[in-house]
Amino acid sequence: MNLGSHGGNCGHSCCLRIADLSVKIGSDMILENISLHAHCGEMIAIIGPNGAGKSTLLKAILGQQESTGVISFAIPGQRNRKLTIGYVPQSPTFDPGDPVTVADLFACCMSKRPAFLGISKKMKEKIEECLERVHGEELINKRVGTLSGGELQRVLLALALEPLPNILILDEPLSGVDVEGMSMLMDMLDEIRQVYDLSILMTTHDFSTLETYADHVILLDRAVLCQGTPSEVLNSKEFQTVFHRKGGTQ
What we know:
By secondary structure, the protein is an alpha/beta fold. Strands 6-7-8-4-9-10 form a 6-stranded mixed sheet, sandwiched between helices. The chain has a 4-stranded mixed sheet with strand order 1-5-2-3, with helices on one face. It is globular and about 55 Å long. The chain has helices at about 55-60, 100-110, 120-130, 150-160, 180-195, 210-215, 230-235, 235-245, and strands at about 1-5, 15-25, 30-40, 45, 70-75, 85-90, 165-170, 200-205, 215-220, 225-230.
């Protein structure tokens, strides 16, 4: 994989450009010739059936999966600044009986000081500041294992926003979240990308939110089958073919 600065017709108007990205594991071609642009302040949704390679694509962007092709980036007006990526993984699980609180989780991730030695006043203020970004200040003393799906996503999102990234990558953020929680989470993501002018790249199986929130949708099934506005993709023949075969299985 070649990682570098933008060239070609993209200029410095987009944060992330992927060209001809492929992933092969053993003899299986998982992804083939994937190309996409993620522009600043844009929300891009990646959809596709199970096994389409959506999570693999995110891992390749994060450098967690070996790939070929080009991943390049540019930050408008800040050509020499290092790109920062925030990441929220898919559906992590925590033991409901585990005594670890949200504050403990943040301290473990953000401090060199062991959490069992206690959290300093300065660190607690920093944690409260992070949770404030997702309107989750009241969660600070809750045990992580007792959080609802929506609450857990807010906590993980707050972690991913420290330090503030240029691109936020989320793998199935709506998984395990109830209908009311979905709406609240998507409203929050929309607020975050506008307030902090960052790009959001997310995979999802929920199509009901696309027309309201997504700027660009990519239909993936090992290769990019179709991309465009939510309306263009959801009404495409490629979408109909993928999601109406085998009873619409995702």
